[in-house]
Design goal:
Elements lengths: L2 E2 L8 H11 L3 E4 L7 E4 L11 E4 L5 E4 L2 E3 L5 E3 L3 E5 L4 E4 L11 E4 L5 E4 L10 E5 L4 E5 L10 E4 L5 E4 L9 E5 L4 E4 L11 E4 L5 E4 L2 E4 L2 E4 L3 E5 L4 E5 L17
Antiparallel strand pairs: 1-21, 2-3, 4-5, 5-8, 6-7, 8-9, 10-11, 11-12, 12-13, 14-15, 15-16, 16-17, 18-19, 19-22, 20-21, 22-23
């Protein structure tokens, strides 16, 4: 495993703002006559955002939640605002506000069409969570996580509940389950590492593959190649094969096989 320094969010502010400046207005990929697609500009978001979430809703619209923007070299403003992108009109419209401003959170579409917004931070990691109801356009606070988390993962399980793993404030390698019936979080098995910026992929057999990420060692971060499997039937984590390279803030896509 390779030890490297992972920049803090404030240290990444300049990069995020440069990235946003190059990508506003928003871009949509559209098919072309050839084998490759193209990017087309669409309407502008109401707020310039970094570290927000974008969630496809059952009605075809996209929910944009939270994030931050830089106001000075290392100062930033956190958003409690949210927007809806309409692919029919290619425009953004404001919707209800979060109860708590946050960035670096997760957003998970639940079976009933609501969206679980969990954790994130606004100067410090958060334990709070909210549900967005697209029928009313409003956010409602639900039970808090046992541990404040930022940079964690949230995976919808086959039973409709949500697995929360890792995060910058994760303690004792904890993981949690959000019960959609009670709208409360409960601790589940202990993972092998206190990971942050890892990936979590639901497999066809119902298990979840947790891969890569980074762990804090003193004042430095160590990037990981290790991976583990979470079994929702047993509520346990088991180490599995390691990747050939260390990775964090990477992507993981379930292939057809």
């Amino acid at each position: 495993m390779q030890a490297i320094f992972v920049p803090s969010m404030k240290e990444l502010a300049r990069f995020f703002m440069l990235f946003l400046a190059l990508t506003v207005p928003a871009l949509v990929a559209t098919p072309s006559s050839g084998k490759s697609g193209r990017l087309t500009s669409v309407g502008r978001m109401h707020d310039l955002r970094a570290s927000h979430t974008a969630t496809l809703l059952p009605n075809g619209k996209v929910l944009i939640v939270g994030g931050f923007k830089k106001v000075r070299t290392y100062d930033q403003v956190y958003f409690n605002s949210a927007e809806l992108y309409d692919p029919q009109t290619q425009t953004f419209a404001a919707t209800g506000n979060l109860n708590v401003a946050r960035c670096g959170h997760t957003a998970t579409l639940l079976p009933d069409g609501t969206v679980l917004i969990a954790g994130g931070g606004n100067d410090a990691p958060l334990a709070s969570a909210e549900l967005y109801d697209p029928r009313t356009g409003s956010f409602t606070l639900v039970g808090e996580m046992a541990v404040p988390r930022q940079g964690h993962t949230a995976t919808l399980l086959k039973d409709g509940n949500v697995l929360i793993v890792g995060g910058s404030q994760a303690e004792k390698r904890s993981a949690e389950i959000f019960d959609t019936k009670t709208q409360r979080f409960k601790l589940t098995g202990v993972s092998a590492m206190d990971r942050v910026s890892n990936t979590a992929t639901l497999l066809p057999d119902g298990r979840v593959l947790i891969a890569g990420g980074a762990i804090k060692e003193g004042r430095r971060w160590k990037v990981l190649s290790s991976a583990e499997l979470y079994d929702p039937q047993k509520g346990t984590f088991v180490l599995t094969g390691s990747m050939t390279m260390v990775r964090y803030k990477h992507g993981a896509i379930l292939l057809p096989d």
